[in-house]
Specification:
Elements: E1 10-12, E2 19-21, E3 39-40, E4 56-57, E5 64-65, H1 94-111, H2 113-124, H3 129-156
Antiparallel strand pairs: 1-2, 1-3, 4-5
Length: 157
Amino acid sequence: MSWRTLKIASKICNNCGESNSENAFICVQCSSTLKDSLVLGIPEALKTIEKKEEKRICSHCNEEVGTDDIKCKYCGTVFIQKSKKDYYVPEVDSDSNFVSATILLYIATLFIPIVGLIVGGMFAFNDDYEKQSIGKGLLILGLIMILVDILVYTLIL
């Protein structure tokens, strides 16, 4: 077949002779580079055919891929599939979880002051103002509990 009769442009692999898409970077057959391969046929830039909206295009190599493909066969880019089924995902109130965790940290600091010092030190240098104030509170409570422990220990002995 002559290169003039080809309607779809393709790169011919210099290593194995496999026909690949014109935008492919590696050979589908032998995985060798197609950097210096000859493009035969009518290049995509010269075509004026309108594409249907249902076709998917790889964001990395701009090749057309099947609607059910999970990986591009030309460049290996993995696609994220949108689920066809609607699942119920309960909403979680992150503020109530954060408040609960903060309360547990203060309670843990009452019994184990080093927890307040460590977590408070990490929170004190956070960019979030609310976490900074919680960190300062945990540091102060941790120091107070260490002083209370020392006082109780000296009064017992």
